[in-house]
Amino acid sequence: MTDVEQHLQDRLTRLARQAPRPADTAARVLALRTRRRRLGAARVAGAAAVGAAVVLAVVPGRPADPPPAPAVTAEVAAGPTGPSLYDVPTRGSLAGDAAFLAGVQAIEWASPPNAALGVLSPPADTRRVLFAGDVPGGHRWALVMGRVGDQLRTAWFAGRTGAPPERLTLWLGTGDAAPGVPITLQDAGAATGPLVVVGLPGDRVEYSPGQDRDASGRLARSYAELPVVDGVSLGEVTTPLVDHAGIAIAYRGEHIVAAGAPRTLNAPLRGVPLHPDQDAAYWLRLRDCLTPQGFRVTLAPSGRDLSWTGGPVTAPDGGDLSSAERAQNTATFERCAEDVRQG
Asked: Where is this region: Disordered (predicted)?
């Protein structure tokens, strides 16, 4: 088994064991491991532009209240069998605007500068507009799915409310898409913003913006069920305080079909020190600023990058942090990075 397959198996096994039960609100608790922050502005900017990371992990056919989870293999990444998003008519407030949909379908994904990012453009006659509509905050979003060979791919296009197709910008292009797995997009540019989950008719969606501590000091999550119309959830939700803290869970019948952090646009680059001259001396100064604050810092072999964990805020039991606690550590990191940048 490769490292990638092992990582996927471990992640899906955790999701299968921790997924909340629809009938038991008090039991809806998910523990997230504090993410080790990997720095490097070029890598982060590229990932944000291309959107290559898988966000919703597939948990096909998991009963709502199962026995202990068996081993999960990497093959589940193909997604659950059954109906496909590709075959469902367009949803959204612009679903009835044939001219607009035709214009969106005609947008070339690989036109400059998208081609430089490695975005593959499916042939126009294979593209289907899954969602098109105006969303809260003055935005207009469209989700398109197409075929490249025997694989399905998706892309999100975004613009201001009222924008014609030619004024929409490719925000997120994906790798292979599973046909029956809901697709998400969240605007993380403000304290609240729109979240869209495009699934199949009959799906239900719940969302949690992060982990908090309850009265006993334990980490807990609370979930809110979002309104869904014809398989699409659209609403304004609280933006997570830190990257990947939010969780969206999609149910199909009594099974969880997807769970994970929604894909985002307009997300700030938190915890990433941007500097015009990232020479070795810069990274050494940054390390020397962070270490007294309680961060555990590891310099890259090149001397021009670093990774970090920890920070001045620690959990009472030495375990995982709440979203607010993680945000405090990130803010301290960013103050250090700014001080070093200013010299």
From this structure: 308-328
